[in-house]
Write a structure and sequence with these properties.
Helices cover 36% and strands 16% of the residues. It is an alpha+beta fold and 141 residues long. A three-stranded antiparallel beta sheet has the order 3-4-5. Strands 1-2 form a two-stranded antiparallel ribbon.
Length: 141
């Protein structure tokens, strides 16, 4: 397997990949029991070159449910009945997730409510209070 170049600076070397072909589930008749077309790729996240620590943390957080006991990321693909196409699909999944991890999240800037939204909120509160006040029995006085 070749190294996977995600960007000009981020490269996943071939040593980071461990590929295994397994039998895919689902329909397929007798052929499904004979052919191992599903691909399981394990990626060692520590071997990814050019990934800054913040991006690596984002990637780990994104794939935390897909990590094995050794901390390797398990990516599977059984989209097609061809093993090589499934391998390329799994590699594209890895590249896409790494690209997403490279994007820094946009920090949320809290905004203040507008004057009209505050006015509308107070009007609705008064209306709800009036409805509740009308529900009380008047003959107690």
């Amino acid at each position: 397997m070749d190294a996977l170049e995600v960007t000009g600076t981020v490269v996943i070397p071939a040593a980071a990949f461990q590929v295994k072909a397994v039998r895919a589930g689902g329909p397929g008749g007798q052929n499904v029991n004979k052919v191992a077309s599903k691909v399981e790729v394990r990626v060692d996240l520590a071997l990814i070159e050019g990934l800054d620590p913040a991006s690596l943390d984002r990637l780990r957080g994104r794939v935390r449910n897909q990590l094995d006991a050794d901390g390797r990321w398990i990516v599977t693909s059984s989209r097609t009945r061809d093993q090589l196409q499934n391998l390329e699909d799994a590699r594209s999944k890895v590249a896409g997730a790494v690209l997403e991890a490279l994007k820094a999240p946009i920090p949320r800037r809290p905004t203040r409510p507008t004057r009209s939204s505050r006015t509308v909120r107070l009007i609705l509160k008064k209306r709800a209070g009036a409805v509740k006040k009308d529900r009380t029995r008047k003959d107690w006085d």
